[in-house]
Design brief:
heterodimer; A: mainly beta; five-stranded mixed β-sheet; globular; B: two-stranded antiparallel sheet
Chain lengths: 911, 591
């Protein structure tokens, strides 16, 4: 390629709008589970659009996210067909043809979402295509003019909040644990105080979570959409406003401000299509977004574990001196953290812009056209913090010599400070793309040809180093259709990325797709059952360039740890050397193959079935198992990792109308199982320790054999459990897999599935009768395990932490009396690395089936002159989950912000 | 329509202007587009060796790799134990450290050979230090703002760091692969083991190339801790003495196997000249010492037990003294990470001297503690009036300890029951009385090589090379003894008796300084592996003259190698993972 340098201050952009415009989303005839229309998505009333996607599309694994810092921005994660790599496995998300975050737009402005997983589509995105593509198209204006107004009022409640012991239960458990540890009980003579609750200052009983969370919080969602157009011009605009509040709310502590957690989002969009001349088409998308997040001045990401870990009897919320309660073990008061640390506000401003021009060149050659596109996105976030510290004091009860409580003394802990101001920026980036294409469409007789030569370059520049990503594609795409029933797509993409060494940045990604529309063949035409039947297959290559920066260069740094010369404690700096450069650096290469059958039967049933098989190779994996550490420098990674991922996708859509009654179902099912072919594992002392041949992310650990029930059993036990601590009755006994009389990491075996499920399915039911209707979206996963190791919830008491109802009531922990039926180890106040070693004791089945959303609506037919229609509806999300955990959300197992269950009421007016 | 057209033109125009303003970069296409801007700090070999400031940091980084056996940080050698804990002189009660978890029960082998055993061949920090040292040697000539003398000295220091690591590898593993350059990404990474002879020669060459570019003793105290010629010559003697000892220098290998056939575990024959080479190395050191001065044993200010103890304590535990030839450092003694004199886990309390070791210490006048001492009939306190070094090495009852008095009698604070784990003695060295007074704000010092060892090594080399001790040999041993007030060795000892006296002197003088393991290994002292590990239970008993009844007990279970003896224990195993990488390692016999 020749150097072309245009001296103009413009950033870059590229559009694949050409590829994007394939879906015709609506009703049952669209895309066999590969695409969904925005109208379906808005049935789920969600402020973050990711959260409308559960179970909607085949192959798309949407997993609930965790966002503890900004719980109101918690969006689900997306994966296509499970995982195929040790590295970054997130799909590429395109909005209107350009890579953008889905969470930057609102559900209401989405026209359709489509997933592209086949080899041809992946090859078109070259070095970025291997993880698949999620294609989002925003709405465009229709002829005429119309206005739509939506308003939703949403009430959030927590789903499966965890319960912890009250003060009396805690004190009893703590003493039970101390006895187990050979220590004297602490609370024997204090239990009455906790039971009676008549000395709440000296003997408090505080339900911290109850104080920290409201039982309800509300949000508002309002949008106004205007659209219209003529034959040559159309426009679409939306103003979308949402104001949401989380359950964390402790306002009015300081009358100058409230520390509640609130988010305000304003999105404005204008999409314009216009034919400037008879042969020139222009499309312009402009989006601006303002977000304001407000939250308490504490570090919210650690608040939830503070709420978990503070025992009910630790200290009162406030002492009688109106000072926050505290003790010397914990350096916080959880409610003080929310109410009295000041507040943080962040302001985020985002613009997304793109411009597309198409010029027909029919005057030169019939069917010839040129395209150009440019996009520029930019974001900044300003974080303004006004934080303070609060004082705490410890209540020390005073007793007379015969044990009568006569009062308390107070020990001050920590000092209050005034509000201090600080401000910084984060989340800055700019993204740009430039794209140009020369295309040719021809149709003659039985032959239809569409060909295109396309250039694309994209650049992303983030706020911190090692974030810049630049990519370039030059590709030829051709589609050929014979007699309207035989199809062939071919693409050759010469695609480059800046993370590879100069001179070696480009790879070629070819792909071929073939299709056969059987229903157009004579033997099926006119068939009364089969309306549509198509077989298609694709195979080809694509890449994934999410590897580290500068891996092919040898760098040094300062601050590598110093040494002390002389006779003082003076350290002299040492140099730091980055890992040895990777000699033969490559990016991941995906070899994809799939075959699909699609059919429409009886004009009411859509069926599709896909088999897919991907081999991902050249994945960077540790070189440690083949290179000696004698080289004296971090052992370079080797691009020799290999993962195979294969599975099936099924989709069934059925719609029928009988009289006033309409029924529909749209169900999809995906099974994806990956296998590690090579991860440079090197030598493992036992055969079962090899991860090769198993799947990514599976759990490994010890197998438990129940508990030691007597000291004699421990004394006579000749296997050494090497995880530390002295064994006592009620401690876990593990299988010595290799028979070497030592239980250690070499006894880890494969315990089960990982956190990413193999099976992902969803089904959407639709029922309507006259003006009433109902939609229900179910989504489930199977072949999944979760690991339960959250402090206080699953690991009680040690290090002055708390104990949960899960441990005490739902399960049976070991005591001499419960030895026969116990399923959890004894209580202890000490760290017990033996009992909490990685083992199947703490594994649980992570399958679930959730009712993600249900909607009841009623259509009002307002007989007015200007065609005004309206719909009112009631919604519920996360209403129930069928799973094996019962009191925990299988998607939210840690000390996190609770999962939200929401109810909403809304109205939609069109005129 | 025209209006719309004009509007669109205006919009496009505005957009272009706005793009122009919002971006400060030129629009690039083609190859230029993918050009990278620096995303790293961008220091390369060339920029580092463009200034003394950065170049020195490469050498400093190499220094940080020097071995520091006291548990420090998280990746300590032996999981918290000292090398002595697997000898007949000490017993560790730490159930997860190397002694208990690996060696006593005999589960140590090449698959368990990982970072927490006595010497982990693949320890990355060691090889990183060696690489940094070679980077310094290869590139320092490029540095514009360093004098030739500075460059030569920097190279010599770097080579001595390499030599220091290789001496440890030689003593633990025998012949090892020789890395004599900084590895390049494009080279074939095949590194076969060198023979013992070649490994020794490699070390001696490094020392001989470096010694004359180093100061004999640092002239500026700010350089204390750096490599000196004194250390270089002392290390040469340590190396050649080990190499001349029967483990390597023998008519037969200590054990048969492929590695022995290929002379990776011994020389292949006995050659008396190897002792002579060791003796010459000692002579070279002491000739230089007479010429240059500077080093001497720290002497007591008066002839009291207290003063002798202080002199001995200063000798191993203070920086910048006249006795330590290479002092290795990490920071303050009470640094949280130092597990002997501060941190949360007191690993020092895990190290229990054995009765055999306790009995080794003579009386203060130099006479031996009786071999047949009758512990059932003790008339006077057996722990009074002993070699001053005893009190600096071993803790017994009734001495200042941890802000109080040590109670090692049964029922006391430090020995609750007669069946408690341990020997009834605690280690005193390095941890001392475990109070803030001795640790807080005091800089640490690990004596990697002390002048006292050089004296004793030279005496041993003379004794072996000349078939018996001469006056010089006696003078060397007596210099060490007299520093703590012990009488001279009785004259007229034959070679064997003198050898025995020296080994005993080394054990008393260099306790817990990583010497005794190598002494029993290089002399193939199988008996030391098979000795009972014994302790003393000291019961309060007013009817006894000392107020205590003493009961000798043997620690059970016996060490694995006592009943399952194999000479394989003389050298460590190479990690199985390294063998599997197939880059040229041949396993030591028996593993």
């Amino acid at each position: 390629m020749k150097n072309i340098l245009i001296k103009a201050c413009i950033c870059l952009g590229i559009s694949s709008s050409i590829v994007a415009q394939t879906s015709e989303p609506d009703s049952l005839s669209y895309a066999f589970g590969e695409a969904v229309s925005g109208n379906k998505l808005t049935e789920s009333v969600q402020i973050i659009p990711n959260n409308t996607l559960y179970g909607r599309l085949k192959g798309l694994y949407v997993m609930q996210g965790v966002n503890n810092t900004n719980p109101l921005e918690n969006g689900a994660s997306l994966n296509l067909r499970g995982r195929s790599t040790f590295g970054n496995d997130g799909p590429m998300v395109l909005v209107d043809g350009f890579e953008r975050s889905l969470s930057h737009i609102t559900t209401e402005e989405i026209a359709s979402i489509q997933v592209l997983t086949d080899a041809v589509a992946s090859a078109i995105y070259g070095v970025r295509g291997a993880n698949g593509v999620v294609l989002i198209t925003t709405k465009e204006g229709q002829k005429g003019r119309s206005t739509e107004v939506n308003y939703n009022f949403i009430v959030n409640t927590p789903f499966r909040m965890q319960e912890f012991a009250d003060a009396e239960t805690y004190a009893k458990s703590f003493d039970e644990a101390r006895l187990n540890d050979g220590l004297d009980p602490l609370y024997t003579d204090k239990l009455d105080y906790y039971r009676n609750g008549d000395e709440p200052e000296a003997f408090p009983n505080v339900d911290w979570q109850d104080w920290a969370y409201k039982s309800l919080s509300n949000s508002h969602l309002l949008d106004i959409q205007n659209q219209g157009g003529t034959d040559r011009f159309n426009y679409y605009t939306i103003i979308n406003y949402s104001n949401s509040n989380s359950l964390i709310d402790f306002k009015n502590y300081d009358d100058r401000y409230n520390t509640g957690n609130n988010r305000i989002n304003l999105n404005v969009r204008s999409n314009i299509n216009v034919d400037i001349t008879n042969s020139t088409h222009l499309k312009l998308n402009l989006m601006a977004r303002l977000v304001q997040n407000k939250r308490p001045g504490t570090d919210l990401s650690s608040l939830y574990s503070k709420l978990y870990n503070t025992p009910a009897n630790a200290f009162p919320i406030k002492t009688s001196n109106d000072v926050w309660g505290g003790n010397s073990f914990l350096d916080y008061n959880p409610i003080g953290e929310i109410a009295d640390r000041g507040f943080i506000k962040d302001f985020r401003r985002t613009i997304n812009t793109n411009l597309y021009l198409k010029q027909d060149l029919d005057k030169f050659i019939d069917g010839l056209y040129a395209e150009a596109a440019i996009a520029y996105d930019d974001q900044i976030q300003i974080n303004d913090a006004r934080k303070r510290n609060y004082a705490r004091e410890e209540v020390i009860p005073l007793f007379t010599s015969d044990g009568e409580l006569v009062g308390a003394s107070y020990q001050t802990l920590g000092l209050a400070s005034e509000l201090a101001w600080s401000s910084n920026t984060s989340g800055m980036y700019s993204r740009s793309a430039v794209e140009g294409a020369l295309g040719y469409d021809m149709s003659q007789g039985d032959h239809t040809i569409s060909a295109k030569l396309q250039y694309r370059q994209t650049a992303y520049m983030g706020q911190w180093r090692n974030s810049t990503m630049k990519r370039q594609d030059l590709m030829a795409i051709a589609n050929y259709t014979l007699k309207g029933k035989y199809f062939a797509d071919a693409v050759v993409n010469y695609s480059g990325t800046a993370v590879l060494p100069e001179g070696d940045q480009f790879n070629t990604y070819p792909a071929l797709g073939l299709g056969w529309l059987l229903s157009e063949e004579d033997f099926l035409s006119g068939n009364s059952i089969i309306d549509y039947l198509k077989l298609k297959t694709s195979f080809g290559l694509s890449g994934n360039d999410f590897i580290g920066h500068d891996l092919h260069k040898q760098y040094y740094g300062i601050g590598g740890g110093g040494y002390l010369f002389g006779n003082n404690n003076t350290s002299f700096g040492g140099i730091k050397e980055g890992g040895l450069a990777i000699a033969d650096l490559k990016i991941e290469k995906a070899r994809k193959f799939d075959v699909t059958a699609e059919a429409t039967l009886l004009k009411k049933i859509n069926l599709s079935a896909t088999y897919f098989n991907e081999l991902r190779s050249d994945i960077l994996v540790s070189g440690g198992s083949v290179v000696s550490s004698m080289i004296g420098i971090s052992i370079p990674q080797l691009a020799s990792g290999k993962v195979k991922n294969q599975g099936v996708e099924l989709n069934l859509q059925y719609y029928n109308t009988i009289g006033d009654f309409t029924f529909g179902v749209d169900a999809n099912y995906t099974f994806a199982r990956n296998e590690i072919i090579n991860n440079n594992e090197g030598f493992q002392p036992e055969a079962y320790l090899y991860k090769t041949g198993n799947s990514l992310g599976q759990y490994y650990g010890l197998e438990n054999e129940g508990f030691f029930n007597t000291q004699a059993e421990i004394d006579n036990y000749d296997i050494y459990q090497s995880f530390g601590g002295t064994l006592s009755p009620g401690d876990v006994k593990y299988t010595d897999q290799n028979g070497d009389k030592v239980v250690d990491e070499n006894d880890y075996v494969l315990l089960g599935y990982g956190n990413m499920p193999e099976i992902y399915y969803g089904f959407n039911l639709h029922l309507a009768y006259k003006n009433f209707g109902m939609n229900a979206l179910f989504q489930g996963v199977a072949h999944r395990n979760v690991y339960q190791n959250t402090t206080s919830l699953h690991k009680p008491l040690a290090n002055n932490t708390n104990i949960s109802s899960w441990y005490l009531e739902e399960n049976t922990h070991w005591t001499p009396a419960t030895a026969a039926e116990a399923n959890l180890p004894r209580l202890t106040t000490l760290d017990n690395p033996n009992n909490f070693a990685w083992s199947d004791l703490w594994m649980a089945n992570g399958n679930y089936l959730k009712l993600r959303n249900v909607q009841f609506y009623y259509n009002l037919n307002l007989e007015s002159a200007n065609k005004m229609t309206a719909r009112i509806f009631l919604n519920g999300s996360n209403l129930f989950s069928i799973d094996n955990l019962n009191t925990q959300d299988p998607e939210n197992m840690g000390a996190n912000y609770p999962t939200s269950r929401a109810f909403s009421a809304g109205v939609q007016v069109n005129f | 329509m025209n209006r719309i057209k004009n509007n669109i033109k205006a919009i496009v125009g505005l957009l272009i202007v706005w793009f122009a303003m919002s971006s400060c970069e030129e629009l690039r296409f083609g190859n230029d587009f993918l050009d990278q801007q620096p995303e790293q700090i961008g220091l390369t070999v060339d920029t580092i060796f463009d200034s003394q400031y950065f170049a020195n940091q490469v050498l400093t980084k190499a220094y940080t790799s020097l071995p520091y056996p006291i548990p420090y940080g998280n990746n300590y050698a032996m999981g918290g134990d000292l090398l002595e804990s697997i000898t007949d002189h000490s017993y560790s009660i730490c159930h997860y450290a190397a002694g208990q978890s690996q060696y006593y029960i005999g589960v140590y082998n090449s698959t368990t050979e990982m970072k927490n055993q006595k010497y982990y061949f693949s320890r990355p920090s060691v090889w990183e230090g060696i690489r940094k040292a070679w980077l310094m040697v290869e590139h320092v000539d490029k540095v514009p703002d360093m004098s030739d003398g500075e460059k030569a000295r920097a190279k010599a220091e770097a080579k001595m760091i390499v030599a220091t690591h290789y001496v440890d590898m030689l003593r633990h593993l025998g012949g090892v692969p020789i890395i004599d350059h900084a590895v390049d990404v494009n080279e074939v990474m095949h590194y076969p083991r060198a023979t013992v002879e070649n490994t020794v020669n490699f070390i001696v060459e490094l020392i001989d190339e470096s010694k004359n570019d180093l100061e004999w003793k640092v002239s500026n105290t700010a350089d204390d801790g750096r490599m000196t010629k004194g250390y270089a010559l002392g290390l040469k003697l340590r190396t050649l003495l080990f190499a001349a000892s029967p483990l390597f220098n023998s008519a037969t290998p200590y054990m048969d196997g492929e590695a022995s056939t290929k002379k990776l575990t011994w020389y292949g024959n006995y050659d008396a000249n190897r002792w002579e080479q060791a003796r010459l190395a000692g002579q070279e050191f002491f000739d230089a010492l007479s010429a240059e001065g500077g080093y001497e044993l720290i002497q007591a200010t008066e002839a009291t037990e207290e003063a002798y103890r202080k002199a001995y304590n200063d000798a191993y535990f203070t920086r910048g003294n006249t006795e330590v030839l290479l002092s290795i450092r990490t920071g303050y003694k009470n640094n949280y990470n130092n597990r002997f004199t501060g941190g949360a886990d007191n690993f020092a309390r895990c190290q229990n001297p054995t009765l055999k070791y306790v009995n080794l210490f003579p009386y203060a006048d130099g006479s031996d503690f009786p071999k047949d001492f009758d512990w059932s009939n003790v008339q006077t306190d057996p722990y009074v009036g002993r070699d001053p070094r005893f009190y600096e090495t071993v803790l017994t009852s009734g001495r200042p300890y941890a802000g109080a008095t040590s109670e090692l009698f049964v029922g006391g604070n430090h020995r609750k029951e007669a069946t408690s784990i341990g020997t009834g003695f605690l280690m005193y060295k390095f941890s001392q009385d475990y109070t803030s007074a001795t640790a807080v704000g005091a800089v640490d010092n690990y004596p990697h090589l002390r002048l006292a060892e050089v004296y004793l090594s030279y005496a041993e080399a003379i004794n072996e090379a000349k078939g018996g001790p001469d006056a010089k040999a006696y003078e060397c041993v007596n210099t060490v003894r007299s520093r703590v007030g012990l009488s001279p060795l009785s004259p007229g000892l034959d070679q064997a008796a003198f050898r025995k006296a020296i080994l005993k002197e080394r054990a008393c003088e260099l306790g817990y300084e990583g010497c005794h393991w190598f002494d029993i290994v290089r002399w193939k002292d199988e008996a030391a592996f098979k000795d009972d590990i014994q302790g003393i239970n000291q019961f309060i008993d007013a009817s006894k003259p000392t107020g205590y009844r003493y009961e000798v007990f043997t620690i059970a279970p016996e060490r694995h190698w006592k009943t399952n003896w194999s000479p394989k224990w003389y050298l460590s195993a190479f990690p199985k993972v390294d063998l599997e990488k197939d880059y040229g390692i041949i396993q030591n016999p028996g593993w």
